[in-house]
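testing teh design pipeline on a random one, pls ignore if ur not involved
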């Protein structure tokens, strides 16, 4: 696990965009896309590189982490719409190659299994972008989630419903249930890039990176993974005990070694 602490949110966005760009330029890539406000700056930077530097996503496939149950894919609040508006429509990624769990499927259990199979059939995710919830969730894997879970239904905590209420007309409109990739599913991606910015994420980041590996902090599951980059601004890193060591290790990073 490599922890990268950067001086500004712009630096975070550029660094994450660099990782995605190198995978995309290397060949047909399978991208794992996260919703939430945190990765939007990186998506905007990738869209700029598409416009100005010929970065093409035409050969990419993308999988979303999660979706609300009972919200149609086309609705304004769906995560599919969020990714379409904040990334897919800004680049040349074919909308037909972007997949999200169907929160309106008649058989939700079958849909969950189908989604895991679709990821596997695509060859697995090359690079998975992740945000983190203030309660330490990844995707929508709330505290208590099995560290090896597969895509399935989860019930949102009240804290997560409050955090996400800004995307809905009223807080009561936030669904209680979601379909989310499991922690086991997420950890099958070849490279995890967890992004966090702002002081509100500092406790969750510290628990994920330096706390015990525990279902109590689902994001701590990244500690199992052989290739994780945790990209933070100073505020999100402010509660890390080993922050000075992470900065030193990043400064000493050999020039031939990328994230
Ligand atoms: C939602 C998403 C997560 C995301 C989290 C944090 O709950 N399901 O994937 O990481 O929000 O969002 P934000 O980046 O807006 O803080």
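output:
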């Amino acid at each position: 696990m490599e922890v990268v602490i950067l001086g500004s949110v712009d630096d975070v966005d550029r660094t994450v965009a660099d990782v995605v760009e190198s995978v995309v330029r290397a060949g047909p890539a399978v991208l794992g896309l996260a919703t939430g406000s945190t990765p939007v700056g990186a998506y905007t930077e990738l869209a700029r590189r598409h416009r100005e530097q010929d970065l093409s996503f035409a050969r990419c496939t993308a999988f979303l982490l999660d979706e609300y149950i009972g919200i149609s894919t086309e609705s304004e609040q769906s995560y599919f719409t969020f990714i379409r508006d904040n990334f897919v429509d800004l680049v040349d990624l074919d909308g037909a190659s972007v997949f999200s769990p169907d929160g309106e499927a008649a058989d939700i259990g079958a849909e969950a299994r189908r989604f895991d199979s679709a990821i596997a059939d695509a060859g697995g995710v090359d690079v998975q972008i992740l945000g983190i919830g203030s309660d330490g969730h990844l995707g929508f894997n709330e505290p208590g989630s099995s560290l090896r879970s597969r895509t399935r239904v989860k019930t949102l905590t009240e804290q997560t419903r409050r955090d996400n209420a800004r995307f809905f007309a009223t807080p009561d409109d936030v669904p209680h249930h979601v379909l989310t990739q499991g922690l086991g599913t997420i950890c099958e991606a070849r490279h995890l890039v967890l992004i966090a910015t702002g002081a509100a994420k500092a406790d969750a980041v510290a628990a994920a990176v330096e706390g015990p590996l525990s279902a109590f902090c689902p994001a701590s599951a990244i500690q199992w993974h052989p290739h994780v980059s945790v990209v933070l601004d100073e505020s999100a890193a402010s509660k890390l005990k080993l922050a000075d060591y992470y900065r030193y290790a990043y400064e000493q990073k050999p020039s031939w070694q990328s994230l």
